[in-house]
Amino acid sequence: MPSQLNQRPNANAIRILAMDAVQQANSGHPGAPMGMADIAEVLWREFLKHNPKNAKWANRDRFVLSNGHGSMLIYALLHLTGYDLSIDDIKNFRKLHSKTAGHPEHGYADGIETTTGPLGQGIANAVGFALAEKTLAAQFNKPEHAIIDHYTYAFLGDGCLMEGVSHEACSLAGTLGLGKLIAYYDDNGISIDGEVEGWFGDDTAKRFESYGWQVLAVDGHDQDAIRAATEQARAETSKPTLIICKTIIGLGSPNKQGKEDCHGAPLGVDEIALARAEMGWADSTPFAIPSQIYQAWDATEKGASQEAAWNAQFADYQAKYPAEAAELLRRLSGELPADFDKIADDYIKACNTKAESIATRKASQNAIAALVSNLPEILGGSADLAGSNLTLWSGAKGVQDHADGNYVHYGVREFGMTAIANGVALHGGFIPYTATFLMFMEYARNAVRMSALMKQRVINIYTHDSIGLGEDGPTHQPVEQVASLRNTPNHFTWRPCDTVETAVAWKVALKTTNAPSSLILSRQNLAFQSRDDAQIANIEKGGYVLAAEKGELKAIIIATGSEVELAMNAYEQLDGVRVVSMPCAEIFVKQSADYIQSVLPSDVRARVAVEAGISDYWYKFVGLDGKIIGMTTFGESAPAKELFKHFGITTEAVVEAVQSLI
Length: 662
Known about the structure:
The structure is a single chain. By secondary structure, the chain is α/β, with parallel strands linked by helices. Helix content is 43%, strand content 13%. It has a 6-stranded parallel beta sheet, with helices on both faces. Strands 1-2-3-7-6 form a 5-stranded parallel beta sheet, with helices on both faces. A 5-stranded mixed beta sheet has the order 14-16-15-17-18. It is elongated and about 85 Å long. The termini are far apart. The model has no long low-confidence stretch (mean pLDDT 97).
């Protein structure tokens, strides 16, 4: 143990709060906060630009605790520096409805930039923050006005580096030269199972050097060395920096430091008493922090001064560049341009007039070209499938060649891409979209979940949506993925059937500010469906009557995507049947009871759902006495038409199912 530990009361305050909170909750991870306290003190007291009284100040530095299990570290920092996080909040650590959840949760407390529980995603989010900062700065800064100019700092641990998403994201960060990204690696050699050398023998320095990062190594308890390394990292603007900090987990606990015992469990009352003595902490009262330490940590005056200086700079910028300033403020607010609805509606009407029968992936590309040219806040990209996802358009500029660009070639990095996009959305000023084959959403699944959990406007384009891939076979044919996405809370899944529904899906996704949306798009051409203005308006409600019944209503066919065409073909052969197109079931169920009843009358129990995906999802709409035409197995390798016939997803099957019910 460093001999000067009892001479570091400011860092020890973090250790005290971490020990006491975890002990009171009888749950948590005290080791990481105690081991990283010295690094945290240097960064937060000397370098971090932030205002505790305005946690949303646009030009603040971003701080990400990627090793989120050490959540008491960020809670202690927020409390000590003056954020709206009281000592009672600290005492309520891990309790129901507390601001201090078991892992940092975005939106629970001011100053928490992103939710970091699943390891590795925090550093990937940090890459997104740094990408957003660099791109926004290139788009708005002027030679005499660096109006967007801040760093992204991240703490991460062994677990973050073992998770593959850290490779995906950090590799791209080096390639893109994100020089204002600085990561501190808590190299303590311990995880839950014990000493990591038995399962994590990577040469981390060489790994990150190969990515194109600057790599520095320090004693994580030598504050002079940490300070010097941070200054060196800030001076290197052409590449991100990893500072490898050799630390002792649980530093200050005489019997448990350096061991897995302090990683994920309370230290115990007796050990905490010994730790207090080791640190020279005079007060044995839990959660007691001397006033002079609060004064030393308080960042409110400094933060207010930093923000005031930026406000003065922005006022000058606003006077010289009023149009740019207004546009920046609009984008940072997350609001779409005032004329967006008209532009989108005019485009939707044009699609209806043109009546093209094309693949919905192509319809999506057309929508991007029509809408994105009016939305400079779009920052999209594909995981090495732009030519298949159709995400490029004439106005796309790759950020790898143009700092002020609007398109990211993510490479084959589905998980990293989506986690980075979450960081871009959280930063502000951009609406990110991602793209890959629907099947490979599985690689990105947890990051999609995090978008929903954090209520972020991220748009996912997933093409090649069914067994319609044909010869690529079952490895590439999605079956259960759409149902999985639909079952994700606070997430909207669109599976449009033609150009008009695709355009509406884009419009609604762009306007949905508090949730991600996924657009499920076809590889093959789909038939255009005729509609009147009222039907077009109802698409935004998630489900609507596409074809009204001829005569008395006897049965309802519900379909999405490519299977709407099958439903319409069956409709031509049947009387008393209504076709309901349901491009977004999650939005449909949120409509008024009267509207839902008008589309799906409860007294009509003869219902058939048809979708080339897993069948079980649709029982909620057809009931146990209804019929579902869909998949119950994985796919096969064959031409698409043969597969639809083989699996019984045909017009004839729909007709037979309806007739059997009526």
